[in-house]
Amino acid sequence: MSSVVVIGGTSGLGKEVARFYAGRGDEVVLTGRDAERAAAVAEEVGAARGLALDLSRPHGVKEALADVGRVDGLVLTAIARDHNSIHSYDIEAALHLLTLKFVGYIRTATMADVVDAVDFLLRNRSVNGIDLTIDGGWLLR
Prior knowledge:
Layout: E1 3-7, H1 12-23, E2 27-32, H2 35-45, E3 49-52, H3 61-64, E4 73-76, H4 91-109, E5 126-127, E6 130-131, E7 138-140
Parallel strand pairs: 1-2, 1-4, 2-3
Antiparallel strand pairs: 4-7, 5-6
């Protein structure tokens, strides 16, 4: 049995990945921005627990994951979108996405006490027919 943390596990790809790993007997911790929703989804998919974590606030990542323990696999599926375009550009929305997708992902993946070694190689291409390369889903094992 492995321990797997799914960042952004309350809906979509993250939820299905959490369900997959829990279904095969792994100990799964999933995260979402809302603690109550994360706990409810964790119960629904059979994960060990759900935690509140907002990657757009990277200073809180270490605290949010402090008591997770050893992690064998880290799945980063937290995603947000904006509607920026050349003609209508919202700098605050762009900074929010940059912080979430770049700083938040890297902060999570490089925490030595959460992941011993992150190699950024996509180990599996799909789970239950869901292509993990779609929608920014990264599977780190």
